[in-house]
Each structure stands twice: as structure tokens, then as C-alpha cells.
Amino acid sequence: MAFEYPVDLKYADSHEYVRVNEEGMAIIGITAFAVDQLGDVVFLELPEVGDTLEKGETFGTIESVKAVEDLKAPVTGEVIERNDPLLDTPEQIADDPYGDAWMLKVKMENADELEDAMSAEEYQEQVEGI
Asked: Domain 10-122 falls in which CATH fold?
């Protein structure tokens, strides 16, 4: 199966992505590859607005018929917005993981943390080399 790897995103080796918007907010979700590996998503747990994420720490869980996986924060910062409709219909993550199925918007404490993240090309090499 061919996956999309949008070049405007930064990728974590734990399969989360970050898109930085015009306001400098980090929009976080999971990659199409991760959704494919999980299978049918049945449950999603996300932090509350106002919570603080620590880079590399677990911020929620995603559950499928096959597995329960931790979601890891690719950046440190405060949760400004959460995609609440996904909590009620987590299966929609598979429909548009890079668009409507974003999970969190985070006010980053240090945008330099993204320097550790992979480019689309690096991420594609990692997952397709598995």
C-alpha cells in the first residue's frame, strides 16, 4: 500500500506528526502508516485543553481491534485545542489522518525541539524499510 508523507510535516519515530501553522501552533496527529498498522481504531484518549505535554512522554492512547498504543508527544507545550469529535468517532482517523483527523493543537514551549524530528523523506525511509 502506498502512503502519503506530506513534506510540510515533521515526524516522530513513534509515528506522530507535527504541522506548524501560521500562528506557530503545533498540530499533532498520527501518520497514515500508523493508522494502517493499527487497523480499525475503536477508542481514543487525549489530554484536556490546558494540560501540558512533555516531549517524549505519553499524552494519550489509541486503541484498535488489534492493539492499544501510547501516543507520544513530539513537542513540549500547552494543549490549546483538542479535536473532540474524534473522541466520539475515532474510526474517522483513518479517513483523513493529515487533515480533519488531527488530534491536538499545542502552543510549543520550544520550537527547536522539532529539529530532532524526521523529514517526510526520512520517515518514509524508516517505515518502508521495516
From this structure: OB fold (Dihydrolipoamide Acetyltransferase, E2P) (2.40.50)
Query: One-letter amino acid identity for 108?
Result: M
Q: Which parts of the chain are beta strand (E)?
A: 10-11, 16-20, 25-30, 41-45, 52-53, 58-64, 68-72, 77-82, 104-108
Q: How many angstroms separate the CA atoms of 34 and 25, rounded?
A: 23
The answer to whether 93 touches 44, Cβ cutoff 8 Å, is yes
What pLDDT, in 10s, does the model give residues 45-54? Answer: 999 999 999 9
The amino acid at residue 4 is E
Domain ranges of the chain: 10-122
d(CA 46, CA 58): 10
The SS3 of residue 106 is strand
Q: Report how far residue 80's alpha carbon sits from residue 1's, in angstroms, rounded to the nearest whole number.
A: 34
Q: Looking at the whole model, is its pTM more than 0.90? A: yes
What residue type is 27 in one-letter code?
I
Average pLDDT of the residues in 85-98? 96
